[in-house]
Amino acid sequence: VEADIVIGADGVNSKVREILLGVEPPIYTGFVAFRSIYPVSLLGDWRPASDAAKWWSDERHPANEDRHFIHYYLTRKRDEMYFVTGSPFPDWPGGVSSVPATKDEIKTCYEGFHPDVQRIIDAAPALSKWPLLERNPLPLWSRDNVVVLGDACHPMKPHMGQGAGMAIEDAAVLFRCIQQADGAFDRAFQMYRATRIERTSEVQRQSHENKWMRTKATDPTWVYSYDAMTTPLVDPETVDA
Ligand SMILES: Cc1cc2nc3c(=O)[nH]c(=O)nc-3n(C[C@H](O)[C@H](O)[C@H](O)COP(=O)(O)OP(=O)(O)OC[C@H]3O[C@@H](n4cnc5c(N)ncnc54)[C@H](O)[C@@H]3O)c2cc1C
C-alpha cells in the first residue's frame, strides 16, 4: 500500500514504532490489573458505600505497598459493576494481553482490605488479569512521513485513567498540526511532538508513581482543563530535541 503519511496508532506493541526506533519490547512494570464486569444483581440487595472508590494499600505497611482496588458503575442506571486493580505480580510470562485469573489470587492480594472490596470480589463470576506495560518517553516520535501516537508513543500504567484520553488528545492535536502545515508533513509532526511531549511525559511519570488523587493535595485541573482543540500549537524550534 502506498500512502502520503503513516500514523502509527497501533498500541503498546506498535510495529510503526519499530520502524522508527527498532525492536524493543515494552517494559513490564511488575504489576497486573485484575478486572471484572458483572451485573449488580449479583450483589443482591447490598451496594457499596460509594458509587466510585479507589482503595489503596497503606504506605505504612511496606509489604502492602502500591496495591489498589478501584470500583465504579459502568452505567448511569448503576446496573453494571466494574473493578480494576493495580497489583504486584513479579513474573508475567509475556506473549498475551490478558489471561483468566482465579478468585483465590485476588483474595490473597486484597486480604485485609475494606469489606466493600471483599464483597465486590466475592460477587464476581469471572475475572481476568492484564499485564501493566509502559515505556520511557520516546526520543523520537516521527521521521519524514511516519509518526506515532497514543500507546504506540507513550504507553503508561493506567493509574490516572488517562491512556486513552492521551491517545485521543494526540489525534486532535495531530489533526490540527497537519491542517496548519499545509502538506509539510515533517514540520506538522515536529509541531505535534512539541505541543504534546511535556504533557504526555508528565502523565506517564505520574501514572507510574500512582499517587494521583491519593491525597487532597492533588490539583487535577491541569489534566481535566486541557482542550486539545484549542491548546496553542508549539513551534518545534522552541522545544529541546
Ligand atoms: C487495565 C487497564 C485499564 C485501563 N484503564 C484506562 C482508563 O480508565 N482510562 C483511559 O483513558 N485509559 C485506560 N487504559 C489505557 C488505554 O486502554 C490505552 O491507553 C488506550 O487503549 C490506547 O489507545 P491506542 O489507540 O493508542 O492503542 P490501542 O487501544 O491498543 O489500539 C491499537 C489498535 O491497533 C491495532 N493493531 C496493532 N497492531 C496492528 C497491526 N500490525 N496491524 C493492524 N492493526 C494493529 C490493535 O488491534 C488495536 O485495535 C487502561 C489500560 C489497561 C491495560
Briefly say what this structure is.
With 241 residues, this protein is an alpha+beta fold. The chain has 6 helices and 9 strands, in the order E-H-E-E-E-E-E-H-H-E-E-E-H-H-H.
Keywords:
22% strand; 6 helices; D-Amino Acid Oxidase, Chain A, domain 2; 9 strands; FAD/NAD(P)-binding domain; binds flavin-adenine dinucleotide; alpha+beta; three-stranded mixed beta sheet
Structure overview:
- This protein has 241 residues and is α+β, with helices and mostly antiparallel strands.
- It has two domains: 6-25 and 136-238, FAD/NAD(P)-binding domain (3-Layer(bba) Sandwich), CATH 3.50.50; 27-133, D-Amino Acid Oxidase, Chain A, domain 2 (2-Layer Sandwich).
- It is built from six helices and nine strands, in the order E-H-E-E-E-E-E-H-H-E-E-E-H-H-H.
- Strands 3-4-5-2-7-6 form a six-stranded antiparallel β-sheet.
- Strand 8 and strand 9 form a beta hairpin.
- Helix 4 runs antiparallel to helix 5.
- The chain binds flavin-adenine dinucleotide.
- Flavin-adenine dinucleotide (FAD) binds at residues 9-11, 15, 33, 35, 84, 130, 150-152, 158, 161-165, 167.
Mean pLDDT: 94
In the predicted model, the low-confidence regions spanning at least 5 consecutive residues are none
Radius of gyration: 20 Å
Estimate the helix proportion, in percent: 25-40%
Q: Which ligands occur here?
A: flavin-adenine dinucleotide
Count, helices: 6
**Helices and strands: which structural class?**
alpha+beta
Alpha-carbon distance between the two ends:
31 Å
CATH architecture descriptor text of the largest domain? 3-Layer(bba) Sandwich
Question: Major beta sheet, specifics?
Answer: 6 strands, antiparallel
What fraction of the residues are assigned to beta strands by DSSP? 15-25%
Specify the CATH homologous superfamily of the largest domain: FAD/NAD(P)-binding domain
Widest sheet: strand order? 3-4-5-2-7-6
